[in-house]
Every structure is written in C-alpha cells, then in structure tokens.
Amino acid sequence: MMVPRVVIELSAEEQVEMLRNEAQAQAVIKLLAEECRAMGLDGLTLEAWPTWERGGFLQPQHGLRPRAILFVRSLAHRLHGQGDQLILVVPPVEGVGSVTSRQDFHSLSAPQTGNSLGDPVDFFSLMTYDASNPGSPGPSAPLPWVKENLEHLLVTENGEILQAAAPRILLGLNFFGNDFVLPQGGGPIIGHEYLSLLESAKPKVIVWDKQVSEHYFDYVKNGQRRKVFFPTLQSIQARLDLAHEYGVGISIWEIGQGLDYFYDLL
Questions:
Q1: For residue 183, cis peptide bond before it (omega within 30 degrees of 0)
Q2: Which terminal residue of the chain has fewer beta carbons within 10 Å of its beta carbon, N or C?
Q3: CA-CA distance, 96 to 21, in Å (whole number)?
Q4: Three-state SS for 251?
Q5: Distance (Å, rounded) from C-alpha 122 to C-alpha 124?
Q6: Cβ atoms of 231 and 262 closer than 8 Å
Q7: How confident is the model over 137-177, as pLDDT tens digits?
Q8: Contacts of 6 (CB under 8 A, 6+ apart)
Q9: Bridge partner list, 208
Q10: What's the whole-number mean pLDDT along residues 12-39?
C-alpha cells in the first residue's frame, strides 16, 4: 500500500488565501486527487496541519480553523470517492505553537451529516518525536510526553479511553537520533552516522534514562561537550508497549534511518 507524504509548498500568504478561497481550495484538492490516481497510489499522507499551526494561521483571530477542517475533510471525501485513503499528520499537543485540541480531532474524525461537510480522515499520524532541538537539547521523545499527547486526544475528562477512535491514531516513532552540542547546537543523525560515532567516540557507557525511557551517551569533540540520543530496542519496545496499551497504531519517521534490527520488534 503506497500512501506517500505530501507537503503543500506555497508561501504563508498563499496558504492563507487557499484556505479562505473555496475555489482555490477545491483546485488544490482536485490536483492532489488526480495526481494520486495518475501515480497509482492508494492515498495521501497530508503534512499541512503542522505548518498551519506553526504559522499561526489557525489562531482564533484569523477565523481559518473551520476552513482548514473543511479543506481536510473535503480532500478525504474526494479521495474516498476514488477508493483512496487520507492520513493527516498532526503536531504534538505539547510543542511550540501547537494548539491542536481534542475538539479538532473530533471535528476531523467524526462522521458528519451531508457531503458538504466532507468525510472523516482515515488515520492521524501523531508527531510524537522532536521534543528537543539544537536550541534546547534533550531526549527525542520522552515517554511521559508521548503518553501525555496520546491521552490529550484519547482520554476524556472522566478518564475513559475513546476506544473507537484509538485505531485511527498512528503513534510517531523516531528511527533517527540527535548528536547535540551542549548547551546548544548539533542536530539529527541516522543509523550509519550513529555507528560511526560509536566507533570514533568510544563511549565508556551508554546510559538508560528511566525518566524518559531513552538511551544516551556523552563525549567531547574539539573541546565541545556533546550528548547523543539514539533509539534502541529497549526504547522502541517501551513505545510499542504504550501503543498497545492504548490500542493505537504506529508511524515511523522514517524507514531506512534506523538500525536494521529495529524491525525485529515490528
């Protein structure tokens, strides 16, 4: 099944205009659906909501949130009409500029009366990674933070899990890591770079941080203190266990970035 990631590469002003202008929105939807058919795909994974969130387009004063929801649901309706699926990438709840709410999730996932309101999204790929960055080094996806994101969408005020909605959420797992400079700097690394670092840095110990359920090691290069976080079988299994506990699926960022034996757990 092929459902590739699609990014709408318009300027901020053009994206705002697209959401405001129904004709432009429908033209983009038509283009995406036709491309999906022409390429023989099974659907699309739309990565637009995080951009809209970070850009502040969905803040109440702009009045664009209902338009964004309608755009996504209209795209889902068009894709469903040709037998395809729509996966929507959504940002973590606890993150810079993120205001995604349980109400957004309901609005995008619940059936509605009338075709004018579009169709529900098939799956939501939750970006439960990138909790840290070069400006604020730390673990990639602290387990309590991942759990908090799931519970924000799936657990009601009464503490009940929305079992019917859970299978539609794909918990994001990072197969990449980070080589941070302390106190600020560095950036992402993938599997072969991690193996090279192990060879060159020769860390005396790789530490398991039980508070966040991730491994890391420290080393010094050119007089700079550095800290490396990279997934391990233990850290991945902890997140798979959490996914199983809540009845959600998983999405991997991304295939090919990790170590070969990661797939033994899947």
A1: yes
A2: N
A3: 28
A4: strand
A5: 7
A6: yes
A7: 999 999 999 999 988 888 877 888 888 889 999 999 999 99
A8: 32, 44, 45, 46, 47
A9: 215
A10: 95
- Residue 50, both tokens: 């995080």
Residue 181 predicted with pLDDT over 90: yes
Three-state secondary-structure class, residue 99: coil
| Percent helix, percent strand, percent coil in the chain, to nearest 5 | 40, 20, 40
CA 92 to CA 113: how far, in whole Å? 29
Closest CA to 119 of 19, 216, 228, 29: 29
- Rounded to two decimals, what is the model's pTM? 0.91
In this structure, the number of other CB atoms found within 10 A of the CB of residue 80 comes to 17
Token code pair at residue 210: 């039980």
Helix (H/G/I), strand (E/B), else coil: 16: helix
Amino acid at 157: E
Percentage of residues of the chain with pLDDT beyond 70: 94
Residue that the structure tokens 């889902």 belong to? 76
CA distance 167 to 150: 12
* Interacting residues of 151 by C-beta distance below 8 A, sequence separation 6+: none
Can you read off the two tokens belonging to residue 223?
A: 């007089």
3-state secondary structure 154-209: HECCCCCECCCCHHHEEEEEECCEEEEECCCCEEEECHHHHHHHHHHHCCCCCEEE
Three-class DSSP labels, 42-89 = CEEEECCHHHHHHCCCCCHHHCCHHHHHHHHHHHHHHHHHCCCEEEEE
